[in-house]
Amino acid sequence: MTEVGIDIIEIARIGDALSRWDNKFRKMVFTASEIEFCEARSNPVQHYAARFAAKEAVAKALKSSKTLFLKWTDVEIVSHENGAPTISLHGESETLFNDFKLSLSLSHSVNSAIAVAILSDK
């Protein structure tokens, strides 16, 4: 089985949400580790947007194979030392998808962030 999810978002939309809702938006959508990672970057909004797109892409890949409710923080984007993003699942999704492999690719420009998530058999 292979499922794919893709998402693209305008960075300005995430910037607007961060400005308008500030910590409420951050805490609802991102884990403490994701917030720490993004805030340590020279342009945090680009990194928040890439992680938001990644969460959407992961949700699309997961939901195409099973019906479940995901909290934003059930999907955590973790960056390795080499910069490669990986996915850490929490809550119900961690149990349901433990036997599958999730792969992720992220990119962003000045205006947009995009993510592709692939769910496959291990």
Notes on the structure:
It contains 4 helices and 5 strands. It has 122 residues and is α+β, with helices and mostly antiparallel strands. It has one domain: Ribosomal Protein L22, Chain A (Alpha-Beta Complex). Strands 1-5-4 form a 3-stranded antiparallel β-sheet. A two-stranded antiparallel sheet has the order 2-3. Strand 4 (100-108) and strand 5 form a beta hairpin. The longest helix has 20 residues, at 44-63.
List keywords for this structure.
122 residues; 4 helices; two-stranded antiparallel ribbon; alpha+beta; 3-stranded antiparallel beta sheet; Ribosomal Protein L22, Chain A; 43% helix
Relevant CATH superfamily: 4'-phosphopantetheinyl transferase domain
Show unreliable segments. Answer: none
CATH topology-level fold name: Ribosomal Protein L22, Chain A
Helix run count:
4
What is the N-to-C order of secondary-structure elements (H for helix, E for strand)? EHHHEEHEE
Q: In what range is the share of β-strand residues? A: 25-35%
Task: Give the helix level as a range of percent.
Answer: 40-55%
